[in-house]
Description:
Elements lengths: L1 H9 L8 H4 L13 H4 L1 E3 L2 E9 L2 E8 L7 E8 L2 E10 L3 H20 L6 H22 L10 E10 L2 E7 L3 E7 L6 E5 L9 H10 L7 E4 L2 E4 L9 E2 L33 E6 L4 E7 L1 H4 L4 H9 L6 H16 L4 H4 L14 E8 L1 H6 L7 E4 L5
Antiparallel strand pairs: 1-2, 2-3, 3-15, 4-5, 4-16, 5-6, 6-7, 6-12, 7-13, 8-9, 8-14, 10-11, 14-15
Helix pairs in contact: 4-5
The chain binds 2-acetamido-2-deoxy-beta-D-glucopyranose.
2-acetamido-2-deoxy-beta-D-glucopyranose binds next to loops.
Amino acid sequence: MLLETLMSLFSLCWSARNNDYNSRRTSATDPNSCEAAAAFEKEGLLWYRDIGKYGSGEFSMAVLQANQVLEDQCQIESGQFGTFLGVYDGHGGPEAARFVCDNLFRHFQAISAQHNGVVTAEIIERAFQETEREFTALVSELWDTRPHVATAGSCCLVGVIFQQTLFVANLGDSRVVLGKKVGDTEGIAAIQLSTEHNANVAAVREELKELHPDDPQIVVLKHGVWRVKGIIQVSRAIGDVYLKHAQFNREPLIAKFRLPEPMNMPILSATPSIVTHPLHPNDSFLILASDGLWEHLSNEQAVDIVHSHPRAGSAKRLIKAALQEAARKREMRYSDLCKIDKKVRRHFHDDITVIVLFLNHELISRGTVQSPPLSLRSALEH
Ligand SMILES: *[C@@H]1O[C@H](CO)[C@@H](O)[C@H](O)[C@H]1NC(C)=O
């Protein structure tokens, strides 16, 4: 198992994976996939799928690269079991986000199968735990040859639709916002369903101080940004094992990642905040996106953009709106921003992933899931 994981993590060519697994993947650059051409279109650093069908309605999806190596990953899985969505915003390299994209859903399915296909918050939490455990084992395996993988981590935002319930599990600072019809008019409200774990949120700093009462340096304000131990903005993630286990916080890690004092307990956590939301017929759509989008758009702006335009192209439209805002902040033209290549782009915005999910309540209330099954993952070129 570990060897397979290792190979998949570091193979340069995604299509060289084991065939059974690969046949269920679709990606823009996977020549073995017959769905590849239909899966994503590409426009410069942007990959998008304007509109597609999943079990309970339609979706729109887009990913924009800013980093030299894309650190965001995402997936939609849909079938008789329901729908599983993931947005994984990696940091310190792409390894953890790719690992989560390749393994979290598999754990979720296996654990749910042990419970006759039921989905509960506890089952989702266990899938996160298994993924964290396996990634930690991988870091341990790689410690002699690739110690830097100990500093790779990933925010994880997962949405699961099971029967008439939406579960939202979150680690880090991605966000899901619900567009909900209100009042008698065309009005729509933006309701955030996820809890964020970023040290810039006062409640998160309080939580960290309570957990680490003897550590005055647990959160540090640096250049106007709050960071856990002065190093990292998020307080929960998969990976970042150098801030969880003392055996990974030593040489050969580079000095800026090594803590000066001994680590007696984990500083970061991989336990997700989980919200259970019974779906209401007025729940119109969900926007799941990495922090790269929310840095430039408010919840209300995003919901208004989706609500006031055709469904097709919604995800791409949100990314373009965020880019226009990023350009405006720098007093530059949008068209000039678009000419800047990856890596340098990172100075203007982060990788951005957006999934918009439109909810069809006729299907949801009847308890039916439309075919065919869908498995779409963003293992894009890198
Ligand atoms: C649902 O939407 C309808 C029509 O927009 C509105 O009249 C009603 O108040 C909404 N119900 C709730 C619970 O928001």
